[in-house]
Amino acid sequence: MQKSDLLNCHKRIAPYIHRTPVLTSRILNILSGADIYFKCENFQKIGAFKMRGAANAILQLSEEEKEKGVVTHSSGNFAQALALAAQNLGIKAYIVMPSNAASVKKEAVKGYGGEIIECEPTPAARELAAKNIEENKGAIFIHPFDNSDVILGQGTACIELLEEHPDLDAVFAPIGGGGLISGTALAAHFFSEKCKTFGGEPYEVDDAYRSLQSGKIERNLTINTIADGLRTHLGELNFPIIRQHVDSIIRVTEDEIIEAMKLIWERMKIIVEPSSAVAFAALLKEKEKFRNKKVGIILSGGNVDLTDLPF
Amino acid sequence: MQKSDLLNCHKRIAPYIHRTPVLTSRILNILSGADIYFKCENFQKIGAFKMRGAANAILQLSEEEKEKGVVTHSSGNFAQALALAAQNLGIKAYIVMPSNAASVKKEAVKGYGGEIIECEPTPAARELAAKNIEENKGAIFIHPFDNSDVILGQGTACIELLEEHPDLDAVFAPIGGGGLISGTALAAHFFSEKCKTFGGEPYEVDDAYRSLQSGKIERNLTINTIADGLRTHLGELNFPIIRQHVDSIIRVTEDEIIEAMKLIWERMKIIVEPSSAVAFAALLKEKEKFRNKKVGIILSGGNVDLTDLPF
Q1: Above pLDDT 90, what percent of chain B?
Q2: Do residues A18 and A126 both lie within one domain?
Q3: 3-class secondary-structure state, position A165
C-alpha cells in the first residue's frame, strides 16, 4: 500500500464520514506528563472509526458488485458501519450476527437498513452463514478488518490527526483484529517523518503482543476483557503491517482500562468505549517514556451500554 | 444592563474561559423536528458555565478588594468556579460548603486553592458562615447567581452561540437560581432581532414558573429533583430580567429529564449533568412549537457522579 492509496481513500470517503474533532485536556496532560491530542472517533458516524473502512470498501466495488450487495459478520460496530455505508449508496447489506447479540445492536443495524441473518454464536457458524449469503445471493464479503480497503479507510483518522498536528512524536491506537492499528501505522509512516505508532492491548487478549514476540500469528485463549471491540483475533493482512510499522505494543490490565476510561469520562466529559480507553491506558502505563512528547491517541468509539458501566 | 456591558464582560473574561464548541446531532434533530445547536458548557473550565460569571465578578473587583479575597456559599459548580477564578488572579477564595457536601466536590475546591469553611447544611447556616467571613476577613461576598456581574458573565455563552449562529429562532436554558437564564435572555435580547429565550424547569422545583404566574418570587416547597444544579430559589435580581425577557418556562418531569439526558449521552457521546438535560427535555416537551426552527440549547455542565447514574 502506498501513500497515494491512503490519499485517494481519504478523498473518496470524505463525503460519507465526519471529520472528527481533536480534543485536548489540561488535566490529562498534567497526569500523563505528555502533550496529548485525542482524535475523537467516538463522534464519528455510527459512533466509531469503523465507518471509515466500511465506506472505503463499499465505494471500491464495481457497479455489478454493488447490485449484488455486501455481507459481513459482526456483532459490533462494523455491523452498523457496513449497513449505513451500504444504505448511503442504495446497496443491500446482509449482516450475520450471533443470536445472542444485544438487541440494541440488532435494532441499530435494522435502523440503517441492514438485513440481519442470525447464527449460532461461534466463529464457525458465522463464517458458514456469511459464506451461504455469498453463494446464494452473490453478495460481496467485506471482512471487518482483514481487508486492504478497510485498513486504508481506518488509516484516514490518523491522516486527519497529522494534518492538524504534523509534529506528533507518537500515535496510540487499540489493537483488536488490527484494522485500526495497521491503518494508523501506515498513515504515520507515510504522513510523518518522526511519528511512531504504539498499540494498546488488554493482557487478557494479547494475541498481537505475542504474535510480535513469536513472529507468527498467535491466538487468544480467552476473550475475558471489558474491551469488547478487541476480543477478535489478529488478521492475516494486518499482522505484517503491524510487524513492519508498529514500534511496540503495550499491554494493560482490566483495572487500568477502567481507570483510564473513567479519567476520560470525568475529565473530558466525553463518552468513550473501553477499547478507546485501552490506548490511553497504554500511554499512562509507560508515561515516563513519553514525557513532554506530543502524542496522538485515536479514541476508537463511544458505543457503550449505559446500563452496564464498570464504575 | 446594556449591550455594552455584555460586550465588555465577554472581552474581560475571554482569557480565563474556554470558547466552548457548538455541536449538532442529526439524530436529535430528527427526533425533535428542530435544527438544534448545542452550546457545550460541559466542556467549560471546571465543567460548567459557572466559570464565566465567577471570572467576571472577580475581574470587576478593585485592587483593595482583591487583596481581601472573596467568599461564597455553594456546594456545587460555583464553588469550584470561584476558587479557580480567584486562583487565576492570585486571590484568596473562602468557600462555605455544607458539611454533607460530596467529598469529591470538596477535593475539587481544594485543588483550585479554595479554603473551605464547613457549615450545617441549612440556608441559614451557610449565610451566617459567609457573613462571618465577610466581617472577620473583609472578604467580598460573591453570590452564585443573584449578582449583576455573575449574570453578565453567564450571558456570554449565548453571545458566542449567536456569533456562530446569528439566525437562531430560540434559545433554551435551565432555570435554578436564574443566573444562566437571565444572562442568556439578556444576550438574546441585545444580540438577536428574533431569538426568543425559553426556560426549562423541573416540576419538582418550579418556583420560577410559579413566580411568573403570580408576579412575585415564589419558593420551592421541595428540592426533590435529580437536577441538583436547579434546587436553589430564584434570585431577586434574576426575576425581573426573566419577567421581561424570557418568553416562557416549560416544566418537565423527572422521567423526561432522565430520558433527555440518556439521549444526549447515547447519541452525542458527551456527558452532561441532569440540569443540562432539563433544557433539552423542555424543547422535546413542546417540540411541535419548534418544528423546523433553529434552536440553541445551553448545555450547562457535565459534572456528574459516574457511580450514581439514573440509568
Answers
A1: 94
A2: no
A3: coil
Preferred mutation among B269, B271, B273, B305 to probe A, highest tally of A CBs within 10 A: B269
Please state, in angstroms and as integers, the Cα–Cα distance from residue B206 to each residue in B155, B217, B256, B274, following that order. Answer: 22, 11, 15, 15
If asked whether residues B99 and B119 sit together in one domain, one would say yes
Same domain, B32 and B68: no
Residues 6+ apart with CB under 8 A from B90: none
Our measurement of the distance from residue B179's CA atom to the centroid of its chain's CA atoms, rounded to an integer in Å, reads 6
pLDDT at residue A122 greater than cutoff 90: no
Query: Does residue B73 belong to any structural domain of this protein?
Result: yes
pLDDT digits (tens, 9 = 90+) for A127-141: 999 999 999 999 999
Domain of residue B91 covers 51-141
Q: Is the predicted pLDDT of residue A58 greater than 90, yes or no? A: yes
The answer to whether residues B264 and B167 belong to one domain is yes
Contact A269 B270 (CB under 8 A): yes
The number of distinct structural domains making up chain A is: 2
Chain B residues close to A258, C-beta within 8 Å: none
Among A38-52, B49-63, B117-131, which is the least confidently predicted range? B117-131
Find chain B residues with C-beta within 8 A of A309's C-beta: 306, 309
The CA–CA distances, whole Å, from B244 to B104, B183, B202, B241 equal 38, 12, 21, 5
